[in-house]
Structure formats: structure tokens, C-alpha cells
Amino acid sequence: MSALYTAIATSTGDGRAGGRSRSDDGALDVTLAIPKEMGGPGGGTNPEQLFAAGWAACFHSAIKAIAAKSKIAITDSAVIAEISLQPVDGGYGLSAALDIELGGIDQTAADDLVAAAHQMCPYSNATRGNIDVKLTTTVA
Hints:
Elements: E1 9-12, E2 20-23, E3 29-31, H1 47-69, E4 76-88, E5 91-103, H2 107-120, H3 122-127, E6 132-139
Parallel strand pairs: 5-6
Antiparallel strand pairs: 1-2, 2-3, 4-5
Helix pairs in contact: 1-2
């Protein structure tokens, strides 16, 4: 099966400690920094923030696509992704919490929509069974 799209990014410098990450088309060009919470200077983004932004956007798109296909009218929506970095045996691991806010539908429909999106989203599929993921759905 051929790829629908391939993203290319290059990290240079000192990685998360003051390096730079840039996409091949230049649309993404960020300075990286260790967060203050980890003893760094802050002042730049980090891989966990980039992962959170990507997963939130992708999951949100999956919700919108499934809702449209199923003719479910959502009045408002947001996906907040929290990616946590923690030490594991000799290295580091990730965990994730996705907080999904949906308006205009009841809780059961929202839960079903989120479950379907979790099966469709490439980030969810890539991490399934690899990291702890908590999904919380709230309706407004």
C-alpha cells in the first residue's frame, strides 16, 4: 500500500536542549527547549508539545469526519491532548490523556463518536498497546 502523505522534519543542534526542528517545506520551524518543569530554561517548544498538538488535531479531524459521515450535527468541539513524559527502566516513556468536548449531542452519542474516532485516528492506532491512553468525553 502506498502512502497518502509523508511528513519530513529534521532536527538539528542539541535536540530538545536548544536545537531546532524544521519541516522540509518550512511550514514548521521551531526552536526546542527543555521545559522549566524539567529543569530547563523553557522559552521554546518540546517534542511532547508537538506530539500533543499533532494528536489533538488528528483526533479532532477523525471526530469531524465520522460525525459528517454519520450525519451527526455537532455544535461545538475541542480535543485537548496531554502528553506526559515519565522515567521508565533506563529511559523515558509517554502516557496520554485526551479530553474531548462535544456540543449538541447526548453523552451516549458522544461516547460512540469518540470510540469510533479512536479507531480511525493514526496517532491512536500508532500508540495502541504501547502507552497508557485515557479518553474523557464531556458534552455541553
